[in-house]
Amino acid sequence: MKSPNGEQASQRTTPSRDSGSPPAEDRSGPPSAPPSASALSPVFSALLDAEGFRHAFFTRAGGVSRPPWDSLNVAAAATGDDASAVQENIRRCAEALGVPLPRLYILSQVHGTDAHILDGTEDREEVVKRLGDITASRTPGVACGVRSADCVPVLLADRQSGAVVAVHSGWRGTVANAAAAGVAVLRTLASSPSIVAAIGPHIEPCCFEVGDDVAASLASASDAGDDVVDRSRERAHVDLRRIVRAQLMAAGVEPTRIDDVRGCTVCDRERYFSYRRDAAKSGRLLSAIVARA
Ligand SMILES: [Zn+2]
């Protein structure tokens, strides 16, 4: 157990969540104020809150990893961070989600669309070795997670059955339409789902500069077409959120039931890890949602 600063008592605090309120980042004081170094500071979807789904888009705050992975880094093998620190970080996330650590599942992500449906009986240490980018469950109390550092985390839930899905959609996953794959998995878990979705913080168009080939691939990834590419600057900049939203809508999710939990991982150094910004020195963020009854 690591306790670098002796402030564990305050680290157990989870921000209050009022149904229908804006995400936590909108009510935590001045926008420029960095989150406390000692407390978890996740951001939430008001839509998922309103439907009674425990979930979180965790920020980098509230963990025990040392620089440059300070502090809530949830990937050891990919970063070189201390494995025991990462384990403690994930344990804190599980606690904040209200689930035991063995019920918080993540995968070895490969920028694809393979899904793993989990019922809580699986060994999480075995599951984390599985290759895939989508976790899903309809078993109450099972938490489905994805890790990211600029890629788009998408949390899906069915209001009827309580089933949930977490999707990791980087630019390759977005080209492969991982969001629609996530919706498809949810439909296998629920006969007539009423889906709510939240698109989490990621590399926004202000910073997502790409080459022409990537821009062309992303322009053909959704009904939004070429409108997602901003060519007013020297190089193309792409709006991943707009693509993922269009993909979710095309997959049958009502536009009013798709929440935008905003934040640019590159711009907001205090709050987020970013591979684009920090490369090999970047940690990974966790986004997760818990199935309910
Ligand atoms: Zn930005």
**Strand tally, please?**
13
| Ligands | zinc ion
Distance between the termini: 33 Å
Largest sheet: 6 strands, mixed
Number of helix segments? 9
Overview of this protein structure:
There is one protein chain. The chain has 293 residues and is an alpha+beta fold. 23% of the residues lie in helices and 18% in strands. Zinc ion binds next to loops.
Write the layout of secondary structure elements.
Elements (H helix, E strand, L loop, with lengths): L7 H4 L34 H5 L4 E3 L25 H15 L6 E2 L9 E3 L6 H4 L6 E4 L5 E6 L3 E7 L5 E6 L1 H5 L2 H12 L5 E5 L9 E2 L1 H8 L9 E2 L5 E3 L1 H11 L7 E3 L14 H4 L6 E6 L3
The site of zinc ion has 6 residues, from loops.
Question: Briefly, what is this?
Answer:
By secondary structure, this protein is of the alpha+beta class. 23% of the residues lie in helices and 18% in strands.
